[in-house]
């Protein structure tokens, strides 16, 4: 009677053995089928370690064995039971992720509030009624933008840890955008600046990305931007 490689791998797992089973030799990797089989298992294992960190290996291997054999009588769960288990697992993971996100949001908010409270005591830092803080690095002499204007800027964005999450300077190209199309801290902060000015903006979470965050920014992160206002309502480049 033929046995699959998975069956051989499981054969040594016997609950309550008084002596450890002999370690089987590694299966050969000579033929194309053997190499593909191992490669598929390796790739699937790596994916499962990310997607299902609490994978129960014995049950997983038995499921593969039963599915590959195609013997429905040997299968221990129906498709409906499998679907129900997957839905329950997904709900549990979503609940866990939601709780983790809430905890991180609370931690980030507290850290941001503590930072801003201390930062506000520095003589060079000014605060607005909204809670935005700014520091003048270089004064400009040009016009100030309105919320409906378009601006051209260079900037570097950092988290409180000092990690740079975005930088037009690193990309070597300034950015142009409508001032009413960005986060509130930018809309307010840029209107304080004159053309040619360079400010450091300290933006609390509620004027940034809030509890939702984004791909590079966690929930309720306080952000620090080094911004240089290059031009207000820049003319479009001629073709």
From TrEMBL:
Keywords: Coiled coil, Isomerase, Rotamase, Signal
Top EC category: isomerase
Coiled-coil portions: 79-106
Entry EC number(s): 5.2.1.8
Any matching Pfam family: FKBP_N
Keyword Metal-binding among UniProt keywords: no
Name assigned to this protein: Peptidyl-prolyl cis-trans isomerase
Organism, scientific name: Marinobacter similis
Origin organism lineage: Bacteria, Pseudomonadati, Pseudomonadota, Gammaproteobacteria, Pseudomonadales
